[in-house]
Specification:
Layout (H helix, E strand, L loop, with lengths): L18 E3 L26 E5 L5 E5 L6 H4 L9 E2 L6 H7 L12 H4 L8 E9 L8 E6 L5 E6 L2 E7 L5 E5 H5 L4 E9 L59 E6 L2 E12 L5 E12 L5 E9 L2 E9 L2 E7 L8 E3 L15 E9 L2 E10 L4 E8 L5 E9 L2 E3 L1 E6 L10 H13 L4 E4 L7 H10 L2 E5 L12 H15 L5 E5 L8 H14 L4 E3 L14 E2 L9 H7 L8 E5 L7 H7 L10 H5 L10 H13 L5 H24 L15 E8 L18 H9 L3 E5 L5 E6 L5 E10 L5 E12 L3 E7 L1 H5 L5 E10 L4 E10 L18 E10 L2 E10 L5 E10 L10 E2 L4 E3 L4 E9 H6 L3 E6 L9 E5 L2 E4 L1 H4 L11
Parallel strand pairs: 1-9, 23-24, 23-30, 24-25, 25-26, 26-27, 28-29, 29-30, 38-45, 44-46
Antiparallel strand pairs: 2-11, 3-4, 3-5, 5-10, 6-9, 6-11, 7-8, 7-10, 12-13, 13-16, 13-17, 14-15, 14-18, 18-19, 20-21, 21-22, 31-32, 32-35, 33-34, 33-36, 36-37, 38-39, 39-43, 40-42, 40-44, 41-43
Helix pairs in contact: 5-6, 7-8, 9-13, 12-13, 13-14
Keywords: Glycosidase, Hydrolase
Pfam family, one: Glyco_hydro_2_C
GO molecular function, one term: hydrolase activity, hydrolyzing O-glycosyl compounds
């Protein structure tokens, strides 16, 4: 039988005690040398770190013919078991076994996989090696996440249950393993959801997504509480046939001595002046000794070793140590954890263990950050009185939140550590500083570790939404919330806790969450929901609510101009069409030129925004010209993506921090709906499901630069947005070009001192734009700091305010001539390409796009990290793009090329050259003028 192991990551984190059986202890609680030990060995270790149980699993659907758990958890052979992927879901295993194709690519999910997968429980079983236990040693079995209810059996004995997808199970199985003779046999019954709906089906003709209702036909899935309720079908996710049941997180085992650390909480308090930090460590312990015992806490912090003697009570207990007990817990001039773009997200490492008699009973390692967060500032409300509004200050610096919503990390929960890390890294590269973990659907240790590493704050929702009834089991819901808070609270990335999505949960859940945060993590804010806060000391000034469809850039600037309440908007998004190559990958070839239900299954209807997919196509044609074929649709959509999504962030940055006369509501935050796609999609993303960054990504990256110069598309003001802690000075050079690329206006605007963490209006271009000789003007803004070079460029295509023709004339502009020269440099960390792109003609080179590809197969090489893309260059302008490929990619791919496309390129007048890498035109993407129209119908 083949062994399936798709798990590419290790479990870490801090476990809490579950229950189970206690082993026999030596009188002293310290192990002597085991018989047959190596000569000179005094002790064998009591404590062993976590060992993964991630291969050799089998599974089957549970029905009336399945043998009982006691037999499954044994060495006896059982017929009908198939190889399983753990961590994973039943559907993931079935795809790996070849029973079904990947339903997210080239298929309609509900046509490909039967929805009956959700209607059964599933048995999983595995045999795994265990050590010979020595006196005093305890053996623990860890489950990091089972959806929905897991019942655990080991060597014929029922061990216990885990309820809810986000609660861990930790079981003391010492007595069972002591009799195992080197191999233990584990069986897990994964229980199905209590409440389900039939599947929601896609319909392109309807103009809405899967019936226009999120959460299934009735929304009853939400009554389950802590599960992946979005898998019932949402406006960004098809119905997932198994509802992501399964052992979706790691299974591990570890050993301790009689005393176990069930939790380690590290709580740094940073002084107001940021010069000192006091670290408090709260330890929760479980002692199997029958009496109190004196033990030594031994460990290290930032290279400083320490030890401290404490008394541990019998049974469950807790101990707190402070700088009064351990000197190195007082930090002088600590290195701080900063959000992305404001400083280094530094993390300290604490290792702490419990010892006695020369033996380590248990040990934990915790990475943590030192930072202070303030959550509010008074802003005049709609009735004229100041209220405490959500406005984030980190380490005494006001932060404009520029974030992205995650609905789900991946539709089928295929989330190895490296993939998840890449998804978070892309947010750092896009200059974002926050991810909202919508309804907690992406809550894993790997997720928070990546956010810690890359400086991404986390708005952490929990498991309630207004799209259906409230959870039917409040106790289960609160148990999962409690475990999440305890499990993840050491992560500096977590900004706040939030009860749910778009409306208040039932009052018992509101009260329960507030009480849990007050008990377990009182320094963090607790919000009732993403739509508003109703708790004690409520925080105001934020809401969700869209728009979720394409609107003009001026609409976004109008919504964020300081005249509209509230100042913080946590859901606002648009269509986000991927590249031609990805569109062809995600839908069947028969549907490429003819939008249909396959497009609808990839959410092109956007749940009705813009009149659904058909309305969006009409809007694109009205703005940029009739759609001739699929390449033409992909090309024009990149402009649609770029101008709208760029404005979502620039509008807030251009109106942040300071109120202006007649504009009492300065912006404090914006979170785009969405940035990470759970499945291949046409909407709500800034990169694709296979991690290709298309124009939406670079729109975000360009808009969220920490110093930026912005053209307000509503007023045509030129605004300097300065997110840094120091004033900036210099000059903004403005050049206006007509449709032929000729400059018709130039000016320089002085930046006398743009205040830190604020916006500054430095001029207005409305009059100059009206003098444009063509329907469209191109605006180049270049900010040069005093006594230094260019800090930032920005670029816009703008309608002539004196004409009503719009952008249709872009389709008739002369193609641009470009020079593209690529050099390849191999290193230990992979391959770096330096691609110099220059406009060598007269026309503007608009949205020049680079791809790295395999010259043998034509396939894109992903992920590839471009420091810039979708370039806009006027006559004589050039830039160098740096592209990084990881060592594995560089080793596996010997035939690497760079291909070029864009809005309109004169291939004959252009020059391409590569040194160690091929450079070609992307002919398929540039084939936008077929002899006859082929798109639509």
């Amino acid at each position: 039988m083949p062994q399936l192991n798709r798990r590419l990551f290790l479990s870490s984190g801090i476990a809490i005690a579950g229950g189970g059986l206690l082993g026999t202890l030596g009188e002293s609680g310290v192990a002597e040398a085991a018989p047959g030990g190596a000569p000179g060995t005094r002790h064998l270790p009591l404590h062993l770190d976590g060992h993964d149980i991630d291969s050799g699993w089998t599974f089957t659907a549970a029905d009336g013919t399945t043998v009982p758990g006691a037999r499954l958890a044994s060495a006896q052979p059982v017929a009908g078991m198939k190889p399983a992927v753990v961590p994973g879901t039943p559907l993931t295993s079935m795809i790996a076994n070849g029973e079904y194709p990947d339903p997210l690519y080239g298929h309609i999910v509900t046509d490909t996989v039967p929805d009956t997968l959700k209607d059964t429980d599933y048995w999983y079983r595995v045999a795994f090696p265990v050590p010979r236990l020595i006196p005093g040693q305890r053996f623990w079995l860890h489950f990091e996440g089972i959806n929905y209810v897991g019942t655990i059996w080991l060597d014929g004995t029922r061990v216990g249950t885990v309820e809810g997808a986000f609660k861990r199970g930790v079981f003391d199985v010492t007595d069972i393993v002591a009799k195992a003779d080197g191999t233990a046999h584990l069986a897990v019954l994964v229980g199905k959801l209590d409440y389900t709906d039939p599947p929601s089906l896609p319909s392109y003709a309807s103009g809405v997504t899967r019936g226009g209702r999120n959460g299934g036909k009735t929304g009853i899935t939400l009554k389950n509480g802590p599960t992946f309720f979005c898998t019932a079908g949402w406006d960004w996710l098809p119905t997932i046939p198994d509802r992501d049941l399964g052992i979706w997180q790691p299974v591990t085992w570890s050993t301790t001595g009689p005393i176990r650390l069930t939790d380690v909480r590290v709580d740094p308090t940073l002084s107001d002046d940021l010069r000192t930090a006091d670290v408090t460590i709260d330890l929760t312990l479980d002692s199997a000794l029958g009496e109190s015992r004196s033990v030594v806490l031994r460990g290290s912090l930032d290279g400083h070793e320490f030890e401290h003697t404490v008394t541990v009570p019998a049974g469950a207990g807790s101990i707190t140590v402070t700088p009064k007990d351990i000197a190195c817990l007082r930090m002088h001039r600590p290195k701080l954890w900063w959000p992305n773009g404001y400083g280094d997200p530094h993390r300290y490492r604490l290792t702490i263990g419990v010892e006695s008699g020369g033996q380590v009973h248990d040990e934990r390692t915790v990475d943590f950050g030192v930072r202070r967060i303030e959550y509010t500032k008074p802003i005049q409300s709609q009735d004229g009185t100041p209220i405490d509004c959500l406005a984030i200050t980190v380490n005494n610096l006001p932060i404009l939140v520029m974030g992205g919503n995650w609905g789900l990390d991946e539709a089928l929960k295929r989330i190895p550590k490296q993939r998840l890390r890449e998804q978070v890294r892309l947010h750092r590269e896009a200059n974002l500083n926050l991810i909202r973990n919508w309804n907690g659907q992406s809550s894993t240790e790997d997720f928070y570790e990546a956010c810690d590493e890359f400086g991404i704050l986390v708005w952490q929702d929990f498991f309630c939404s207004t799209e259906g009834p409230p959870p039917g089991n409040t106790t289960r819901d609160l148990d999962n919330i409690r475990d999440c808070i305890v499990r993840f609270r050491n992560h500096p990335s977590i900004l706040l806790w939030c009860g749910g999505n778009e409306g208040p949960p039932p009052q018992p859940l509101i009260d329960g969450l507030d009480a849990l945060v007050a008990e377990l993590d009182p320094k963090r804010a607790s919000l009732t929901s993403s739509a508003g806060d109703t708790g004690k000391g409520a925080i105001g000034g934020y809401s969700s609510g869209g728009p979720y469809h394409w609107v003009t850039p001026s609409t976004h600037f109008g919504l964020a101009d300081g005249t509209h309440w509230p100042p913080f908007h946590n859901e606002i998004g648009s269509y986000s069409i991927p590249t031609l190559e990805f569109i062809r990958k995600m839908i069947p070839e028969a549907s490429w030129e003819h939008p249909d239900d396959s497009w609808a299954d990839r959410d092109v209807n956007g749940n009705g925004g813009n009149g659904g997919g058909a309305g969006y196509l009409r809007l694109t044609a009205q703005r940029y010209g009739e759609l001739q074929n699929l390449p033409d649709f992909a090309r024009k959509s990149q402009l649609m993506n770029y101008e709208c999504i760029k404005a979502i962030y620039e509008a807030s940055a251009a109106n942040m921090e300071s109120a202006a006369p007649g504009k009492p509501y300065p912006r404090t935050g914006v979170i785009m709906w969405m940035t990470n796609p759970a499945q291949p999609s046409f909407v709500w993303q800034m990169y694709t499901h296979d991690l290709e960054a298309h124009s939406s990504f670079y729109a975000v990256q360009h808009a969220c630069r920490r110093v930026n110069v912005i053209l307000d598309s509503q007023t045509h003001d030129v605004v300097v947005a300065n997110h840094t802690r120091a004033a900036v000075r210099g000059t903004v050079d403005v050049t206006l070009h007509d449709l032929d690329g000729k400059a018709f206006g130039r000016t320089s605007l002085r930046v006398g001192g743009a205040a830190p963490s604020d916006h500054t209006v430095i001029g207005n271009l409305a009059t100059r734009l009206k003098s444009a000789p063509s329907d469209v003007a191109f605006v180049r803004l270049s900010f040069r700091e005093a006594h230094s070079g260019e800090r930032v460029r920005n670029f816009y295509w703008v309608k002539n305010p004196a004409r009503a023709a719009g952008f249709l004339s872009l389709d008739d502009m002369d193609p641009a001539a470009v020079s593209v020269v690529a050099d390849a440099k191999h290193g230990r960390d992979g391959l770096e390409l330096a691609v110099q792109v220059e406009n060598i003609g007269r026309s503007v080179a608009l949205m020049v796009h680079l791809q790295v590809y395999d010259t043998r197969t034509g396939e894109r090489i992903l992920p590839a990290t471009f420091d810039d893309n979708y370039l806009n260059l006027v006559d004589g302008e050039s830039t160098t793009v740096r592209v990084r490929l990881g060592a594995d990619q560089a080793r596996k791919r010997k035939d690497i090329g760079v291909r070029v496309d864009g809005w309109a390129i004169d291939q004959h007048a252009s020059r391409l050259r590569g040194h160690g890498v091929a450079v070609t035109f992307n002919q398929e993407a540039l084939s936008v003028h077929p002899p006859t129209k082929t798109f639509g119908g």
